[in-house]
Every structure is written in C-alpha cells, then in structure tokens.
Amino acid sequence: MQDELRLLQKLIESVRPLNMDDRNVFSCIWKPYSAGRKEVITAAGETEHYLYFVTKGIQRVYYLDDQNREATLAFMYPPSFGGVVDSLLLGQVSRYYYETLTPSEFLRAPVQELQTLMAERPGIADMVRLGVTQTLSGILERLVEVQCFSSEDKFRNLLRRSPHILQLVPHKYLANYLGIDATNFSKLVNKIKI
C-alpha cells in the first residue's frame, strides 16, 4: 500500500501541496479496495460513500436513461480520483453509475472521514475544493466540445488530452463518450494519424 500512497501524494501535490501534518492525517483515511471487470461500484439510486483513488484498471461514470440508452460521462484510470463525486460531496442519491471496465484496484476514503478532515484542516479543504474546481473546469470544456465541435474535432481533442486512451478504453465506450456513432468513430481512428 506504500506505493499506492506515494502515487496518491504525488497527485495531491500536483493539485495543492499539503503540509506534513495534513499529508500524514490525509493518508490515514485511505484503505485498499478492489473490484472485478464490469462491476458496478456505485449504482444510480445509491449514495456514494467513498472517494476512490484509482491505482489499477479503468472505470467509467455513465448515465442510463429510461429507454436504456447509455451516456458515458467520464473515464478514470491511474492515477486519478474516481467515484460519483456530486453524490459524495452533496450526500444525495446518485443519478449515475460508476463501473469498472477492467479489474481495478483502488484506495478509498469514507466520506465521513473526508468531511471531518475538511472541517478540521483548512489545507485539506482547500486541496479538495481546488481539485473539484479543476474537474468542473474540465467538464465545462467538455460541454463546449459536445455542443459545438464536429466529430473530428472532438476526436482530435480527446487524443490531445489523453493520447493513450485508444489503447486503454474499448472504442465503443469512447464513441459513446464523444457522442459519435461507432461506425464513424472507426472511420476517424483509421483517418486521423496518431
């Protein structure tokens, strides 16, 4: 677990460095967790109780409408945080699913312990707030892409942000994430030089 905690600390440092006391206290709330392939960790209708830190595997957050159509909203892979964050931080029922695409390993922190640390330690609260703000900024950027960009531009931007993602995530999920028909996605993969 020491290697995983070092990876977590490195990610935290990239968001907002913590002092030694905050870092030590924050490290203590994380416990190992694993899940198999295609396992729903959090389902719509449940409340998210953990913040996850991905150490192995690939996951996605998706929405399922009343006609059983899926909308893939986000992918998680090491080293990143995972879970249904709005449900976690607002303490409300999730509208989304958090699912593993491959066998996955995590560190996870219970929301009660996370909230206690945030209330008691301003440095940790600032780090979490900044991390959530950075995530929101990325989501807003993605909304602009979905609404304004051509399929080819969405595909190019995805490769610019995450050039390795074509090797990590099955193409049907990437097509869904971009809002592109799977056949058109295949054409883009073949057309655009990577």
UniProtKB/TrEMBL annotation:
It holds the Pfam family cNMP_binding. SUPFAM superfamilies: cAMP-binding domain-like. Signal peptide: none annotated. It comes from the Bacteria. Residues 37-120 form the Cyclic nucleotide-binding domain. InterPro entries: cNMP-bd_dom, cNMP-bd_dom_sf, RmlC-like_jellyroll. This is Crp/Fnr family transcriptional regulator. It comes from Dyadobacter chenwenxiniae.
